Amino acid sequence: MSRLTLDDLLDQLEQARQIAIEERKPTAMIQATATMAKLTGLDKPVIKDVHADDVQSISDLMNELSSEQAAITYKNIMG
After folding, report:
1. φ, ψ for residue 54 (rounded to 5)?
2. Does this model's pTM top 0.70?
3. How far apart are CA 77 and CA 79, in angstroms?
4. Would you call 25 exposed, middle or buried from its count of C-beta atoms within 10 A (0-12, 13-18, 19+)?
5. Which long-range contacts (CB under 8 A, 24 or more apart) does 66-72 make?
6. Do the domain assignments include residue 79?
7. How many domains are contained in the chain?
8. What is the superkingdom listed in this entry's lineage (predicted)?
C-alpha cells in the first residue's frame, strides 16, 4: 500500500480543476485552486523580517513633515 504524498494530492486537484474548466464550472475550479493554495501554504500572508534599526519612530516621521502637514495629521488622528 503506497502512501499519499503532497504531489499526489496536487496532481489530483489539478485534474479536478481541469475537469471544472472543461465543464465550465468556475466555483469548482476556484475551490480546487484554493485548496491547492492551502496545501502549499500560499494562502497565508508573508511576514517580512524587520530589524529594529530599520524602523523609524513616530517622532522621527513627524519631524519629516512640515508643520502644516503635522497639524493636519494630528487633527486627523485626534479627531
Report:
1. -85, -10
2. no
3. 6
4. middle
5. none
6. no
7. 1
8. Bacteria
